[in-house]
Amino acid sequence: METLNNLMMGFGDAFSPMNLVYVLIGALLGTAVGVLPGMGSSMAVALLLPITFTLDPTAAFIMFAGVYFGGLFGDSTMAILVNTPGGSTAIATAFEGHKMALSGRAPQALATAAIGAFTGGLIATTLVVFFAPKLAEFAILFGPAEYFALAVFAFLASAAVVSDSLLRGLISLVVGLLVATVGIDEISGAQRFTGGVPEMFDGIGIIIVTVGILALGEVFYVIYEQTKPVPKVREGKIERARLSWAEFKDALPAWLRGASFGVPFGVIPVGGAEVPTFMAYATERKLDEQRKDPQFGKGAIRGVAGPEAAGNATAGTAMGALLAMGLPTSATAAIMLAAFQQYGIQPGPLLFERNADLVWPLLASLFIGLFVLLILNLPLAPMWAKLLLIPRYYLYPGIAVFCALGVYATSAAIADLWLVLVIGLVGFVMRHFDFPLAPIMIGVILGPLAESSFRNALLSSGGDYSILVGSPIAIGMYTLMGLVLVAAFVRRFQNKRANAKREKEEEALAEL
User: How far is CA 477 from each of CA 213, 439, 470, 488, rounded to the nearest angstrom?
Assistant: First the structure.
């Protein structure tokens, strides 16, 4: 009952006219950035983060509720229309969604994605409302050793899962950790990797890192790859997004199954929704094989419904993990954590007590944001596709200027502009050589937590390293980490065998 009362209080604040305007603006901006090729939901949050700093905390985070889910819908819109997923979480959607678009069913695919996003997000947000406070109570049991185990688990899990190469994932993680060590050591007060430059004493801001790695790095990559053809939207294929009753009944089980995959992965630090979306896709494909008339490969509506619900359910419960434990389980959640820290707010077990006036309006605005996105994007999805008609030589220079203005607005320091340029070049190099970017963000955000927890644990135990594995929670974390690594190695081994078998079959066919 107390939870419902708090939620009603949150709705009372969120339903004020100005806050509803902020949700609407966030939904529009998040979707608009999300539909840009290669940008994606995490970049939408990174790019739009600086413009919220003039708002009060409640208004800023209510606006981010719209940005948060709007960016995810934008990812899927491009995946369906032009087979160009805005983010990695929309890759699974692109397989069947683009086939639906090519066969003249783009409106149905867009409607399936919008309703799937709404369904998955609604289920996950409802669970967050009722269980996040309980998760916060559980988080009180965490001491320095447990938080260190949690951070290490996030490091290795993200490095192992989000990349086809464990080595590349670990290299990306190390880059993030190196960036996190720049500045004044919080415990000893020593300078680290500052080069004696005063502007570096406070470290490299998370805004600089996110905008440089995700946005500016992508701009450089697109300029470098400008010889590639630009995908075109098929004229006459985009109408008002809608579903018939038969199509709705066909998609409903897939939406529910997809949400069941996504909900638990939101609280597991594996770097994003890639795993549950592909699990949902694989499940729907396997079930489709048992039908009399299999649709996969022709444009199966369930192949869009399952991954979409899974991706948004993961995003919803990721917000719960962030609020209750201060744990960012994806790159987007890591940027949201930076937004909290910018206002001097630390998510974690005490957040629901110290900042209840902020948390409950934020949770209420997540519900409002889902409804706003559904109402907006069913009729407006064709309009988002028109953004692809903007010439690249206008679009990407504009993004670069927006990056510079956003970074400069946060600090008014020329040194930050040079930093974001250097980090953008680093992001371009990593993007060019297929290094995953999520481990960098996880390393930058959780690096300080891992270091301080490790050192505090040793200080409290007099230098006894056994304290790091001295509790059931820590042991459980390390055990789960081992299982994730084993699963990652098994998956890669199976992929290599499948690829080798496919190559042999192709060689045999070529000889015939």
Answer: 29, 18, 12, 16
Q: Which residues pair with 28 in a beta bridge?
A: none
H helix runs in 343-471, sequence order: 351-354, 356-385, 392-411, 414-432, 438-460
pLDDT, mean over the chain:
77
The torsion angles phi and psi of 389, rounded to 5 degrees, stand at: -80, -10
More confident residue, 145 or 225: 145
The answer to whether the CB of 15 falls within 8 A of the CB of 370 is no
Is 289 within a domain?
A: yes
431 found inside a domain: yes
Residue pair 73/122 in contact by the 8 Å Cβ criterion:
no
What's the pLDDT tens digit per position in 3-33? 778 778 878 877 888 888 888 888 888 887 7
State the Cα–Cα distance between residues 252 and 247, nearest whole angstrom: 9
Structure tokens at 383: 């309009």
| CA 396 vs CA 33, 42, 386: distances in Å | 12, 17, 16
Which range of residues forms the domain containing residue 168? 2-228+241-511
Neighbours of 299 (CB within 10 A): 22
Residue 230: the pLDDT is: 45
Classify 192 as helix, strand or coil. strand
> Quick check: helix, strand or coil at residue 271?
strand
Q: Do 433 and 166 contact (CB within 8 A), yes or no?
A: no
pLDDT per residue as tens digits for the range 286-306: 788 777 777 787 778 888 988
236 inside domain: no
Q: How long a stretch of residues is the chain? A: 512
Q: Is residue 233 part of a domain?
A: no
The count of structural domains within the chain is 1
Does residue 210 register a pLDDT over 60? yes
Instruction: Collapse the DSSP code of 241 into the 3-class scheme (helix H, G, I; strand E, B; otherwise coil) and give the result.
Output: coil
Tokens of 267: 């609280």
Look-up of token digits 């909900």: 263
CA 65 distance to own-chain centroid: 13
Give the chain's largest Cα–Cα span.
72
Query: Is the pLDDT confidence value at 238 over 70?
Result: no
DSSP class of residue 196? T
Q: How far apart are the first and last CA of the chain?
A: 72
pTM of the model: 0.63
Q: How far apart are CA 331 and CA 325, in angstroms?
A: 16
One DSSP character per residue, 177-188 reads HHHHH-EE-TTT
At 191, which helix (H) or strand (E)? strand 191-192
Burial of 120 (0-12, 13-18, 19+ CB in 10 A): buried
Give the residue-averaged pLDDT of 108-118: 85
